[in-house]
């Protein structure tokens, strides 16, 4: 049975930014996310965890929980070839983290400022990705990829993960827009 990807309601509203929320008479919240940072669709009752669904995205096994070593990243492409991401066990609880310690997360390695590669700048002591080799942006991987330094103004896009009883970790969606794409599932924008 797969673990559902959940965050609390406040975190969802903070992450989404451009979400449209509708409060129904029974207290349920249904949010369809729009705009340049597409997230998916979420539903919950007030005070409960929000559950995300990404119906357009591929469902891909990327690693097994039992093979992960804290601080040793695993790189994979998602949702398209050429969109590189890093899966890592942080060793501390993270927003949208999965696994028994909620510490396994995955993020795009294309800097959200101008797309520079962040493949070699993971700092396990602080759980951050950065500084970016171009303009020093640094992202907190335990806080949804929040920028904590440098020129980027957006979070680093985060891969939505699920884990099943066998420990298989699956990528099932994406929070945020991968740099250089008009939408994560579209062809890369032409550089002009
Ligand atoms: S490309 Fe990373 S901070 Fe500018």
Helix-strand layout with pairing:
Layout: E1 6-7, H1 9-16, E2 19-23, E3 28-33, E4 41-45, E5 50-53, E6 60-64, E7 74-77, E8 84-89, E9 104-108, E10 122-123, E11 128-129, E12 138-140, E13 146-149, E14 158-163, E15 168-175
Antiparallel strand pairs: 1-5, 2-3, 3-4, 4-5, 6-15, 7-8, 8-9, 10-11, 11-12, 12-13, 14-15
FE2/S2 (inorganic) cluster binds next to loops.
Question: Can you tell me the overall shape?
Answer: globular
- Strands of the widest sheet, in order across it, are 1-5-4-3-2
Helix-strand makeup class: mainly beta
Q: Please, what is the average pLDDT?
A: 82
Per DSSP, the total helix count is: 1
Radius of gyration: 16 Å
Helix content: under 10%
Distance between the termini: 46 Å
Could you say what the CATH architecture of the largest domain is? Answer: 3-layer Sandwich
Largest beta-sheet details: 5 strands, antiparallel
Q: Any idea how many domains? A: 2
The sequence of SSEs as H and E is EHEEEEEEEEEEEEEE
Superfamily at the CATH H level of the largest domain?
Answer: Rieske [2Fe-2S] iron-sulphur domain
How would you briefly describe this protein structure?
With 192 residues, the protein is mainly beta. The chain has one helix at 9-16, and strands spanning 6-7, 19-23, 28-33, 41-45, 50-53, 60-64, 74-77, 84-89, 104-108, 122-123, 128-129, 138-140, 146-149, 158-163, 168-175. Strands 1-5-4-3-2 form a five-stranded antiparallel sheet. Strands 10-11-12-13 form a four-stranded antiparallel sheet, with no helix packed on it. Strands 6-15-14 form a three-stranded antiparallel sheet, with no helix packed on it.
């Amino acid at each position: 049975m797969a673990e559902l990807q959940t965050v609390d309601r406040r975190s969802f509203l903070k992450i989404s930014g451009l979400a449209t929320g509708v409060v129904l008479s029974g207290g349920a919240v249904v949010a369809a996310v729009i705009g340049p940072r597409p997230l998916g669709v979420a539903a919950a009752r007030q005070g409960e965890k929000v559950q995300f669904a990404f119906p357009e995205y591929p469902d891909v096994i990327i690693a097994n929980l039992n093979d992960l070593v804290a601080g040793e990243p695993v790189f994979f492409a998602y949702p398209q070839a050429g969109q590189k991401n890093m899966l890592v066990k942080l060793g501390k609880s993270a927003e949208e983290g999965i696994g028994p310690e909620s510490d396994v997360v995955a993020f795009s390695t294309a800097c959200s400022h101008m797309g520079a590669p962040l493949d070699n700048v993971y700092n396990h002591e602080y759980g951050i990705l950065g500084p970016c080799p171009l303009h020093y942006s640094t992202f907190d991987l335990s806080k949804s990829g929040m920028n904590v330094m440098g020129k980027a103004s957006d979070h680093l896009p985060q891969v939505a993960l699920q884990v099943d009883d066998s420990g298989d970790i699956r990528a099932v969606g994406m929070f945020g827009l991968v740099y250089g794409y008009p939408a994560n599932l579209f062809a890369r924008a032409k550089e002009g």
